[in-house]
Amino acid sequence: MDLLDFVAERREQIAFQGFQHVSLVVQCVLLATVLGVALGVVCHRRAWARGLAAGTSSVGLTLPSLAVIAVVYGLTRDGIAAAVASVTFYAVLVIWRGAVVGLAGVDRSLLEAAQGIGMGRTRRLLRVQLPLAWPVVLSNVRVATQMTMGIAAIAAFVTGPGLGGLIFTGLARLGGANALESALVGTVLVVVLALVLDLLLVLLGRATTPRGIRA
């Protein structure tokens, strides 16, 4: 059986696992964006908090994803919970740091001008700071999405959902029938879907970034 026959025979299974993979990553990145931006808002005003965000992100991102997934699975005995927790964890680290950098980089004279025309702290945050920081935040959301597409595949090691099932099934049976096709299809689809999500985020950035601050 060649690669095309393998895909044709299992197209429904492959499409379902691809949907699971994208759904997992999109939902976790959305959750991580909310958490990361909220943490960024809390941390960006103080130097020590900005240092804490940078340090925590740097240390967290050095943790092997397989180890994190295994630890969460050991605690929950649930592959889906392990996948969601680990993907969200890594995405939060990236987006949190981006939110801190983006918010801290907003020109203080603009904030003072906004305060001068009567804007309170919340309005300045929502109407001035977050829109100006959004391009930096979104660039980190793109990085987090690309990174977690790969991490989501590793979650299949503990029966997590998605295309990792094809990859691990193939690797576990290397030398057997259709093993190479299974691993190859899973890997290629992860890359293709990551590129599609990145393109959608680029379009989202163009639609949501004020024209005056587009790069």
TrEMBL record:
<feature type="transmembrane region" description="Helical">
    <location>
        <begin position="20"/>
        <end position="42"/>
    </location>
</feature>
<keyword id="KW-0813">Transport</keyword>
<dbReference type="InterPro" id="IPR051204">
    <property type="entry name" value="ABC_transp_perm/SBD"/>
</dbReference>
<dbReference type="GO" id="GO:0031460">
    <property type="term" value="P:glycine betaine transport"/>
</dbReference>
<dbReference type="Pfam" id="PF00528">
    <property type="entry name" value="BPD_transp_1"/>
</dbReference>
<protein>
    <submittedName>
        <fullName>Osmoprotectant transport system permease protein</fullName>
    </submittedName>
</protein>
<feature type="transmembrane region" description="Helical">
    <location>
        <begin position="183"/>
        <end position="204"/>
    </location>
</feature>
<dbReference type="GO" id="GO:0055085">
    <property type="term" value="P:transmembrane transport"/>
</dbReference>
<keyword id="KW-0472">Membrane</keyword>
<keyword id="KW-1133">Transmembrane helix</keyword>
<keyword id="KW-0812">Transmembrane</keyword>
<dbReference type="InterPro" id="IPR035906">
    <property type="entry name" value="MetI-like_sf"/>
</dbReference>
<feature type="domain" description="ABC transmembrane type-1">
    <location>
        <begin position="18"/>
        <end position="201"/>
    </location>
</feature>
<dbReference type="GO" id="GO:0005886">
    <property type="term" value="C:plasma membrane"/>
</dbReference>
<feature type="transmembrane region" description="Helical">
    <location>
        <begin position="149"/>
        <end position="171"/>
    </location>
</feature>
<feature type="transmembrane region" description="Helical">
    <location>
        <begin position="54"/>
        <end position="74"/>
    </location>
</feature>
<dbReference type="InterPro" id="IPR000515">
    <property type="entry name" value="MetI-like"/>
</dbReference>
<feature type="transmembrane region" description="Helical">
    <location>
        <begin position="80"/>
        <end position="104"/>
    </location>
</feature>
<comment type="similarity">
    <text>Belongs to the binding-protein-dependent transport system permease family.</text>
</comment>
